[in-house]
Design goal:
It is built from three helices and seven strands, in the order ααβββαββββ. The protein is of the alpha+beta class. A three-stranded antiparallel β-sheet has the order 3-4-7. Strands 1-2 form a two-stranded antiparallel sheet.
C-alpha cells in the first residue's frame, strides 16, 4: 500500500514544478506587455515634447540661456517639469536631450551667439534670405552627450531586460519638428546687440 504522506509530498512537488513553469511564461508575458505599453508611451510622448519645445522656442528669447532662463524653461516644460530632470516614467529622456537649433532660409544653422531678437528683425527685414536671418526653429531629441550630431537616445527597459528580450538598445526617434520663427522673444523695450554686416556672399538661395 502506498504511503499517503509520500503521495501528498509528490503531488505538492509536481504542483510546484507546474507553477514554476507557468509562472515563467506568465510573468514574461506580463512584464513584456507592461514594457510594450511604456514603449508606446515614450514613442508618442517624444513627438509631443518636440512640438511643445518648438512652439515655445518660436516666441522665446534665445539669448536668455542663463540658469532658469527662458530657454531652460522651454526645455523643462517640454518634458513636463518645472525644473531640470527626467521625463516622467522615462529616465532615458531629460531636458538636456531637447536640442534646439535656429535655421536660415537655406535650412542652415544660424550661430545665435552673433545675434539677438532685435538684430534678427533687422537682418530679416533687410534680407529675408540672409545667412544670419533666423527663419525657422528646429527641435529634436538627441543624446545629450552628442547634441551636434544628434545621436539617438537608446531605450532602456524599466524592468529587468531578461524579462523583456528585444527592448534593450532600441533607438528612440528624434521626432524632428521645424516651425517658422515668430517673435523669438522680441519686445519693443529690448536693446539690440552688436550688428554684423552682411554681404552678398552671405546670402543663400532657398531650396524650392
Amino acid at each position: 500500500m502506498e504511503n499517503p504522506t509520500f503521495t501528498n509530498t509528490k503531488q505538492r512537488g509536481v504542483a510546484t514544478v507546474e507553477f514554476a513553469l507557468i509562472a515563467i511564461v506568465f510573468f514574461t508575458l506580463l512584464f513584456g506587455l507592461i514594457e510594450l505599453g511604456r514603449v508606446i508611451y515614450v514613442w508618442n510622448t517624444v513627438q509631443q515634447i518636440t512640438r511643445q519645445a518648438a512652439r515655445e522656442s518660436t516666441v522665446s528669447d534665445f539669448t536668455d540661456v542663463g540658469a532658469g532662463g527662458a530657454m531652460d524653461k522651454v526645455r523643462w516644460n517640454a518634458v513636463f517639469r518645472t525644473s531640470a530632470g527626467n521625463l516622467p516614467a522615462a529616465a532615458e529622456i531629460n531636458d538636456a536631450a531637447v536640442s534646439i537649433n535656429y535655421l536660415n532660409a537655406c535650412m542652415k544653422t544660424v550661430d545665435i551667439s552673433t545675434t539677438c531678437p532685435v538684430q534678427n528683425i533687422t537682418y530679416c527685414l533687410g534680407n529675408p534670405n540672409g545667412k544670419n536671418c533666423i527663419r525657422f526653429v528646429r527641435v529634436r531629441l538627441c543624446d545629450p552627450a552628442n547634441l551636434p550630431d544628434c545621436t539617438p537616445i537608446l531605450y532602456r527597459p524599466m524592468i529587468l531586460p531578461a524579462f523583456v528580450p528585444g527592448f534593450t538598445g532600441i533607438p528612440i526617434p528624434p521626432s524632428q519638428v521645424v516651425m517658422p520663427a515668430e517673435s523669438l522673444g522680441y519686445r519693443p523695450s529690448m536693446e539690440s546687440c552688436e550688428p554684423i554686416v552682411e554681404t552678398l556672399p552671405n546670402d543663400c538661395t532657398p531650396t524650392p
